[in-house]
Amino acid sequence: MTALDQFSNTVAGYGNTVQENRVFANNGDGINAAGGTSAKPNVIYKNTAGDRGKGNAGHGISVASAGNGNTSPMEIELNTVKSNGGNGIRVAGTGHQLKDNVSGGSGGFPGGDDNGKCEVAVVSGNFNATGNKANGAAIGGANGSAFPIACQGTP
Fold it and tell me: Residue 59: pLDDT above 60?
């Protein structure tokens, strides 16, 4: 397990696991992971980024490195992301699997749990491992299918 840098909440390099952190009220992103490779991806597992009244100013979780495609380990799994200024979960790298993540609240409640931009914003080349939710609604797609690249959920 890799701890986040206490000043920037950034993990750099490859093969790191960011697990069971609670990150609130930071001036930037809650969790920012960069540097993973397809052979040794960074894994973001079971974290909480932001909450009502104490969201992060940037994205809740931001991943800008490569994932391993449709193999083990699952890169982005069981995270809860609420009330951040940017996207809830932002994936700018390719090859990541997303599973059982929850972003935002039930939608439409100003000052509530929704993130400031998309609940989930993912570039092309990532995979839906199912169970993901944006504003309380399931993000569709079969296990192993391409993750939708349109903005999922809205503030």
Answer: yes
